[in-house]
Amino acid sequence: MTYLVVLGFLAIVASLGSALYFMMRDGQDGKAKTSNMARALAFRVGFSILLFVCILLAWKFGYIQPTGIPLR
Questions:
Q1: DSSP letter assigned to residue 31
Q2: Is residue 26 exposed (0-12), middle (13-18) or buried (19+ Cβ within 10 Å)?
Q3: Which residues touch 19 (CB under 8 Å, ≥6 apart)?
Q4: SS (H, E, C) 41-71
Q5: Collapsing DSSP states into helix, strand and coil, what is residue 12?
Q6: What is the three-class DSSP state of 35?
Q7: What is the reported pTM?
Q8: Is 69 left (phi over 0), alpha (psi -120 to 50) or beta?
């Protein structure tokens, strides 16, 4: 489960990095702007939702246990 979470965070950070790259490079030197930045940010949202759902499923099936403030 740890590897899945780390892989999910790396995918989110890579998507943010590619969106930053496209934001800085698209539309320069007379080239037309593309929708690459929006696509990269959409992938980031998708990766975030997928990671959240995977964590919820792992909790539901007992692969991970919640810790922290105990319930009364």
A1: P
A2: middle
A3: 37, 40, 41, 44
A4: HHHHHHHHHHHHHHHHHHHHCCCCCCCCCCC
A5: helix
A6: coil
A7: 0.74
A8: beta
**Side-chain half-sphere of 60: how many Cα atoms within 13 Å?**
6
Going from the C-alpha of 3 to that of each of 18, 31, 55, 71, the distances in angstroms are 22, 40, 12, 29
> For 5-64, how does the pLDDT look when each residue is reduced to its tens digit (9 = 90+)?
899 899 999 999 998 998 888 777 767 677 888 898 999 999 999 999 988 998 899 888
Rg (CA), the chain: 17
Using an 8 Å Cβ cutoff, are 41 and 19 in contact?
A: yes
How long is the chain? Answer: 72
